[in-house]
Automatic annotation (TrEMBL):
Keyword Signal in annotation: yes
Originating organism: Pelistega indica
Signal peptide as annotated in the record: 1-24
Biological process per Gene Ontology, one example term: DNA damage response
Transmembrane segments: none
InterPro entries: 26kDa_periplasmic_antigen, SIMPL/DUF541
UniProt name for this protein: Periplasmic/secreted protein
Keywords, comma-separated and alphabetical: Signal
Length: 240
């Protein structure tokens, strides 16, 4: 007897499932193996946008000149001073960033050296982070701003989304079972995934920053946008 296999592909279905703005998406394929039992591969995904609660600043200093030793001394002095100021505040986490040097020029001209170093500052207190930028503007320049989701916030959001994606998966499985003339279904396997694979342990958002119009010396205002947390359930069910 020949085995008859049928595959049914349904387009992605998007539905707004929660008033909080969580978006649920589902995908599925079906096939009927030799034992005449319909098996369905089903996928459900939920997302939620949340406000990042951590800001990460990159401060840098770059010097250029012909005396490499003197440049190194000046750069190290600036970096060490900024590090000491940051360590004095328990609400700031501070560490060294990239550090390097290179030469410019050619054999016919005097070689010039470029020295560059970074300090990374992380904090949940945006006001203190902003004040730290202003405090050190004469020693180091603000080079980058990144808004991220803390480990605690990420875990809290994912815990809620896991419950939501389970509900979305079961609701879709029940609807599919009825559509194919079955009253019940059995979950054969299921796997949960999140979008941490793109950025392990954290979620990054583009830095949305605005500057005061009073003068160029005013500190940058730290305004983070939102980041998206995603949880997906990929599973297989059999209709009964």
């Amino acid at each position: 007897m020949k085995t008859i296999t049928k595959v049914l592909a349904l387009s992605t279905i998007a539905m707004v499932a929660w008033q909080s703005g969580v978006l649920a998406q589902t995908e599925m394929t079906t096939n009927k193996p030799a034992n005449d039992q319909t098996v369905i591969n089903l996928s459900a995904s939920v997302q939620e946008e949340v406000k990042p609660d951590v800001v990460r600043l990159t401060l840098s200093k770059q010097l250029q000149g012909t005396n490499q030793q003197e440049l190194t001394t000046q750069l190290n002095k600036a970096i060490n001073a900024v590090l000491e100021k940051g360590k004095a505040d328990p609400d700031l986490t501070i560490r060294n960033g990239d550090y390097g040097f290179w030469s410019v020029g050619d054999k016919e001209k005097e070689i010039s050296w470029v020295m560059r170093g970074e300090v990374i500052v992380t904090s949940k207190d945006f006001a203190k982070a902003q004040a730290f930028i202003a405090m050190n503007k004469d020693m180091m320049t603000l080079d980058n701003i990144q808004f991220i989701l803390s480990e605690e916030s990420r875990n809290k959001v994912e815990e809620k989304l896991i419950a939501n994606v389970a509900e979305a998966f079961n609701k879709k499985a029940s609807a599919v079972a009825k559509a194919f003339g079955s009253q019940t279904y059995h979950i054969n396997s299921i796997q949960l995934n999140n979008n941490a694979g793109r950025q392990p342990r954290m979620y990054a958002a583009a830095a949305a920053t605005t500057y005061s119009s009073k003068s160029a010396d005013d500190a940058v205002n730290l305004e983070g946008g939102k980041v998206e947390v995603n949880v997906t359930a990929d599973g297989q069910i059999s209709l009964r």
